[in-house]
Amino acid sequence: MQPQIQAAINKFNNNIQILSNPRTEEDYRRSNSLLIYIRNLIQQRNIVNIEPEEIFTESYIRAQEYIKRNGKEVINTVPFLKKIALNCVREIHRKQKKELLCDPTIFENLISTTTTTSSESFLENLSKEEQDNVKSKLNKLSPLDKQIIQLWQVERWKWKNIVDELKKQGENLSLVNARKKGERIMKKLKQ
Protein backbone atom coordinates (compact mmCIF):
# COMPACT_ATOMS: atom_id res chain seq x y z
CA MET A 1 0.00 0.00 0.00
CA GLN A 2 1.27 3.44 -0.90
CA PRO A 3 2.46 5.62 1.99
CA GLN A 4 0.02 8.38 1.02
CA ILE A 5 -2.95 6.00 1.20
CA GLN A 6 -1.71 4.48 4.45
CA ALA A 7 -1.35 7.95 5.98
CA ALA A 8 -4.91 8.86 4.89
CA ILE A 9 -6.27 5.64 6.42
CA ASN A 10 -4.37 6.23 9.66
CA LYS A 11 -5.67 9.78 9.94
CA PHE A 12 -9.22 8.61 9.24
CA ASN A 13 -8.91 5.83 11.85
CA ASN A 14 -7.64 8.36 14.41
CA ASN A 15 -10.68 10.55 13.74
CA ILE A 16 -12.95 7.53 14.14
CA GLN A 17 -11.21 6.67 17.41
CA ILE A 18 -11.92 10.18 18.67
CA LEU A 19 -15.59 9.82 17.67
CA SER A 20 -15.80 6.45 19.41
CA ASN A 21 -14.15 7.70 22.62
CA PRO A 22 -14.79 11.43 22.82
CA ARG A 23 -12.59 13.27 25.29
CA THR A 24 -13.64 16.87 24.80
CA GLU A 25 -17.07 18.46 24.70
CA GLU A 26 -16.62 19.19 20.97
CA ASP A 27 -15.72 15.55 20.22
CA TYR A 28 -18.74 14.38 22.18
CA ARG A 29 -21.03 16.77 20.30
CA ARG A 30 -19.72 15.63 16.91
CA SER A 31 -20.04 11.95 17.85
CA ASN A 32 -23.54 12.42 19.20
CA SER A 33 -24.67 14.41 16.16
CA LEU A 34 -23.62 11.59 13.85
CA LEU A 35 -25.55 8.90 15.74
CA ILE A 36 -28.61 11.13 16.11
CA TYR A 37 -28.48 11.87 12.38
CA ILE A 38 -28.35 8.15 11.56
CA ARG A 39 -31.16 7.36 14.00
CA ASN A 40 -33.33 10.06 12.40
CA LEU A 41 -32.65 8.70 8.92
CA ILE A 42 -33.77 5.25 10.04
CA GLN A 43 -36.93 6.61 11.66
CA GLN A 44 -37.84 8.87 8.74
CA ARG A 45 -37.78 5.96 6.34
CA ASN A 46 -39.46 3.52 8.73
CA ILE A 47 -36.66 1.01 8.39
CA VAL A 48 -37.05 -2.05 10.58
CA ASN A 49 -34.45 -4.30 12.20
CA ILE A 50 -31.54 -1.90 11.77
CA GLU A 51 -29.67 -0.12 14.54
CA PRO A 52 -27.75 3.16 14.07
CA GLU A 53 -24.53 1.39 15.05
CA GLU A 54 -24.94 -1.01 12.11
CA ILE A 55 -25.24 1.91 9.69
CA PHE A 56 -22.24 3.57 11.34
CA THR A 57 -20.19 0.38 10.90
CA GLU A 58 -21.21 0.03 7.25
CA SER A 59 -20.37 3.71 6.69
CA TYR A 60 -16.94 3.20 8.26
CA ILE A 61 -16.23 0.20 6.01
CA ARG A 62 -17.32 2.08 2.90
CA ALA A 63 -15.21 5.09 3.89
CA GLN A 64 -12.16 2.84 4.27
CA GLU A 65 -12.80 1.37 0.83
CA TYR A 66 -13.17 4.85 -0.63
CA ILE A 67 -9.84 5.96 0.81
CA LYS A 68 -8.08 2.83 -0.47
CA ARG A 69 -9.64 3.11 -3.90
CA ASN A 70 -9.12 6.86 -4.43
CA GLY A 71 -6.15 7.53 -2.20
CA LYS A 72 -7.77 10.73 -0.97
CA GLU A 73 -7.68 12.01 2.56
CA VAL A 74 -11.00 12.64 4.31
CA ILE A 75 -10.90 16.17 5.63
CA ASN A 76 -14.25 16.39 7.45
CA THR A 77 -14.94 12.97 8.92
CA VAL A 78 -18.43 13.54 10.33
CA PRO A 79 -20.01 15.12 7.20
CA PHE A 80 -18.33 12.46 5.08
CA LEU A 81 -19.75 9.66 7.24
CA LYS A 82 -23.18 11.33 7.23
CA LYS A 83 -23.22 11.29 3.45
CA ILE A 84 -22.25 7.63 3.34
CA ALA A 85 -24.81 6.80 6.05
CA LEU A 86 -27.51 8.51 4.01
CA ASN A 87 -26.63 6.34 1.01
CA CYS A 88 -26.63 3.19 3.18
CA VAL A 89 -30.06 4.02 4.58
CA ARG A 90 -31.42 4.76 1.11
CA GLU A 91 -30.19 1.38 -0.15
CA ILE A 92 -31.72 -0.46 2.79
CA HIS A 93 -34.98 1.42 2.37
CA ARG A 94 -35.15 0.51 -1.33
CA LYS A 95 -34.35 -3.11 -0.55
CA GLN A 96 -37.01 -3.34 2.17
CA LYS A 97 -39.58 -1.68 -0.09
CA LYS A 98 -38.79 -4.16 -2.85
CA GLU A 99 -39.02 -7.10 -0.45
CA LEU A 100 -42.34 -5.74 0.76
CA LEU A 101 -44.06 -6.82 -2.43
CA CYS A 102 -42.29 -10.19 -2.63
CA ASP A 103 -43.26 -11.60 0.78
CA PRO A 104 -46.29 -13.94 0.61
CA THR A 105 -47.62 -12.88 4.01
CA ILE A 106 -47.56 -9.29 2.86
CA PHE A 107 -49.58 -10.15 -0.24
CA GLU A 108 -52.05 -12.04 1.91
CA ASN A 109 -52.44 -9.03 4.17
CA LEU A 110 -52.53 -6.64 1.23
CA ILE A 111 -55.39 -8.47 -0.38
CA SER A 112 -57.30 -8.81 2.89
CA THR A 113 -56.85 -5.10 3.72
CA THR A 114 -58.35 -4.14 0.38
CA THR A 115 -61.39 -6.35 0.93
CA THR A 116 -61.95 -5.96 4.68
CA THR A 117 -61.82 -3.13 7.17
CA SER A 118 -59.36 -4.79 9.48
CA SER A 119 -57.75 -2.41 11.94
CA GLU A 120 -54.66 -4.60 12.03
CA SER A 121 -52.43 -3.87 9.12
CA PHE A 122 -49.10 -5.00 7.89
CA LEU A 123 -48.66 -1.48 6.55
CA GLU A 124 -47.54 -0.18 9.96
CA ASN A 125 -43.89 -0.13 8.86
CA LEU A 126 -44.62 2.10 5.88
CA SER A 127 -45.04 5.84 5.88
CA LYS A 128 -48.57 7.17 5.43
CA GLU A 129 -47.78 8.13 1.85
CA GLU A 130 -46.45 4.63 1.03
CA GLN A 131 -49.47 3.01 2.72
CA ASP A 132 -51.84 5.08 0.63
CA ASN A 133 -49.84 4.31 -2.51
CA VAL A 134 -49.90 0.52 -1.95
CA LYS A 135 -53.61 0.48 -1.05
CA SER A 136 -54.43 2.64 -4.04
CA LYS A 137 -52.59 0.30 -6.40
CA LEU A 138 -54.31 -2.75 -4.96
CA ASN A 139 -57.74 -1.15 -5.11
CA LYS A 140 -57.16 -0.43 -8.80
CA LEU A 141 -56.60 -4.12 -9.53
CA SER A 142 -59.46 -6.03 -11.05
CA PRO A 143 -60.87 -9.00 -9.12
CA LEU A 144 -59.14 -11.28 -11.64
CA ASP A 145 -55.78 -9.58 -11.05
CA LYS A 146 -56.21 -9.86 -7.28
CA GLN A 147 -57.05 -13.54 -7.63
CA ILE A 148 -53.98 -14.17 -9.79
CA ILE A 149 -51.75 -12.46 -7.22
CA GLN A 150 -53.46 -14.36 -4.39
CA LEU A 151 -52.93 -17.73 -6.06
CA TRP A 152 -49.45 -17.02 -7.39
CA GLN A 153 -47.77 -15.03 -4.62
CA VAL A 154 -49.73 -15.92 -1.48
CA GLU A 155 -50.75 -19.52 -2.02
CA ARG A 156 -47.74 -20.29 -4.26
CA TRP A 157 -49.71 -22.19 -6.89
CA LYS A 158 -48.05 -23.33 -10.09
CA TRP A 159 -49.10 -21.50 -13.24
CA LYS A 160 -50.79 -24.59 -14.71
CA ASN A 161 -53.00 -24.88 -11.62
CA ILE A 162 -53.80 -21.17 -11.73
CA VAL A 163 -54.87 -21.44 -15.38
CA ASP A 164 -57.03 -24.50 -14.58
CA GLU A 165 -58.70 -22.66 -11.68
CA LEU A 166 -59.36 -19.60 -13.83
CA LYS A 167 -60.86 -21.80 -16.59
CA LYS A 168 -63.30 -23.23 -14.04
CA GLN A 169 -64.43 -19.66 -13.39
CA GLY A 170 -64.89 -18.92 -17.08
CA GLU A 171 -61.59 -17.10 -17.72
CA ASN A 172 -59.90 -18.33 -20.87
CA LEU A 173 -56.17 -17.63 -20.41
CA SER A 174 -53.33 -19.66 -21.79
CA LEU A 175 -50.41 -20.57 -19.54
CA VAL A 176 -48.16 -18.01 -21.25
CA ASN A 177 -50.81 -15.27 -21.05
CA ALA A 178 -51.50 -15.93 -17.37
CA ARG A 179 -47.79 -15.83 -16.50
CA LYS A 180 -47.31 -12.61 -18.44
CA LYS A 181 -50.39 -11.09 -16.80
CA GLY A 182 -48.96 -11.98 -13.38
CA GLU A 183 -45.62 -10.38 -14.26
CA ARG A 184 -47.38 -7.21 -15.43
CA ILE A 185 -49.42 -7.02 -12.23
CA MET A 186 -46.26 -7.33 -10.14
CA LYS A 187 -44.54 -4.65 -12.21
CA LYS A 188 -47.53 -2.36 -11.72
CA LEU A 189 -47.49 -2.94 -7.94
CA LYS A 190 -43.73 -2.31 -7.63
CA GLN A 191 -43.79 1.03 -9.46
What is the element layout, followed by pairings?
Layout: H1 3-20, H2 25-44, H3 52-70, H4 77-100, H5 104-115, H6 128-140, H7 143-154, H8 159-168, H9 175-190
Helix pairs in contact: 1-3, 2-3, 2-4, 3-4, 5-6, 5-7, 7-9
- The coarse overall form would be elongated
Q: What is the structural class?
A: mainly alpha
> How many strands, which pairing sense, and closed or not: the largest β-sheet?
none
Distance between the amino and carboxyl termini: 45 Å
List the helices and strands in order: HHHHHHHHH
Strand content: under 5%
| Low-pLDDT runs | 114-122
Mean pLDDT: 82
Number of domains: 2
According to DSSP, the number of beta strands is: 0
Helix content: over 70%
Rounded to the nearest angstrom, the radius of gyration is: 24 Å
Number of helices: 9
What does this structure look like?
With 191 residues, the protein is mostly helical. The chain folds into 2 domains: 3-95; 101-190, no CATH class. The chain has 9 helices and no strands. It has helices at residues 3-20, 25-44, 52-70, 77-100, 104-115, 128-140, 143-154, 159-168, 175-190. Helix 2 crosses helix 3. The model is unreliable at 114-122 (pLDDT under 50).
Structure in a nutshell:
With 191 residues, this protein is mainly alpha-helical. It has nine helices and no strands.
